[in-house]
Amino acid sequence: MTGFRILLATIFLAIAVYTGFVVLDHGMNLLPVFFGDILRMQWPGQFNLDFLGFLILSGFWLAWRHHFSPAGLALGVLGFFGGAPVLTVYLLIVSYQAQGDVREMLLGKARAQ
Question: Distance (Å, rounded) from C-alpha 58 to C-alpha 98?
């Protein structure tokens, strides 16, 4: 579990630093660039569409794990728009709450029993 937590922290830090540099150079103009690449039907757009699928699955999983409660739905939206930084922080927190029990981490406390 320690290795997994280190991986989560590394992913979070790498994306946070990278994002900081991109925002400094290009501003907060993500959505037009993201969807513009998809509309151009080239490899960057294919990658963005693939990534969009992962964002949808991530948001859906977060909402499902919390039984589609209002908090779960909010987490799902946050996960969809926040991507890997949100998911890495969430999994770090949940890994400690579940005391490293991967089944509980993935399914939630109620489903893991």
Answer: 19
> Which residues of the chain fall below pLDDT 50?
none
* Alpha-carbon gap, residue 106 to 109, rounded angstroms: 9
CB 88 within 8 A of CB 9: yes
Give the pLDDT score at 39: 97
CB 9 within 8 A of CB 92: yes
DSSP state of 99: T
- Retrieve residue 3's tokens: 């290795």
Instruction: Give the three-class secondary structure for 67.
Output: coil
Question: Rounded distance, CA 73 to CA 48, Å?
Answer: 23
Count of residues for the chain? 113
Buried-exposed string 69-85: b where 16+ CB fall within 10 A, e elsewhere: eeebeebbebbbebbbb
- Biggest CA pair distance of the chain: 49
